[in-house]
Amino acid sequence: MSLHYFAMPPDLPAPLSDITTIRQFCRQQLGEGGAIVEVEAVTLGRCSALSTILKMSQEPAGMTYVAALTIPFAECSFVAKVVCPEIGVTGMRDAVVAEMLDAWEMQDWFADPYLPDYRNPVLRNRSDDTEWDATFPDHPLSRARRHLKEMAAMTLSSEVEALAPFPGPLRRPSIPR
């Protein structure tokens, strides 16, 4: 788990109220090697924040799950992050869940949670659903979700809450040619 402070405006492409644009940005940043598990705008104290769980394929097998809570402000941001890689035997959660589901439930096994028609070599799957965390409490995704919940419960100081909120990216005026 780590906490980062960035003394510059966030590189988010839109305000948190435009979550669709932020999700698209995450897809582009992940490329073919990763997928969105969850990307949501949340409230932390009196501040808006971005809660994300992303997964990236690792070599030779398995996934690494990265859960982050980003608190953007006009001139800086804070990011609390936890990285949970699969170690040892991988794919057990997927295999057990696939075995438990019937054929109807197996439809759309792989799908982006917010853009069902999106195609990518790595996608969220049905075993990534929150409902399976209790069955697999030691799985890296279950641990990532638990840590994200703990991070979201932190209390921000009044000095941090008083910082100017992130309005979205600064737009530079276009220069006619």
Description:
The protein has a single domain, classed as Protein Transport Mog1p, Chain A, CATH 3.40.1000. The mean pLDDT is 91. The protein is built from five helices and five strands. The longest helix has 13 residues. A five-stranded antiparallel beta sheet has the order 1-5-4-3-2, with helices on both faces.
In short:
This protein has helices at residues 19-30, 92-100, 103-106, 140-152, 158-161, and strands at 2-6, 34-44, 47-57, 63-72, 77-85. It is an alpha+beta fold.
Helix-and-strand structural type: alpha+beta
- The appropriate CATH architecture is 3-Layer(aba) Sandwich
Q: Beta-sheet strand percentage?
A: 25-35%
The helix/strand order is: EHEEEEHHHH
CATH level-1 class: Alpha Beta
Task: Please mark out the parts with pLDDT under 50 across 5 or more consecutive residues, or reply none.
Answer: none
Query: What is the residue-averaged pLDDT?
Result: 91
Integer tally of domains: 1
* Amino- and carboxy-terminal Cα gap: 48 Å
The total of beta strands comes to 5
Topology readout:
Elements: E1 2-6, H1 19-30, E2 34-44, E3 47-57, E4 63-72, E5 77-85, H2 92-100, H3 103-106, H4 140-152, H5 158-161
Antiparallel strand pairs: 1-5, 2-3, 3-4, 4-5
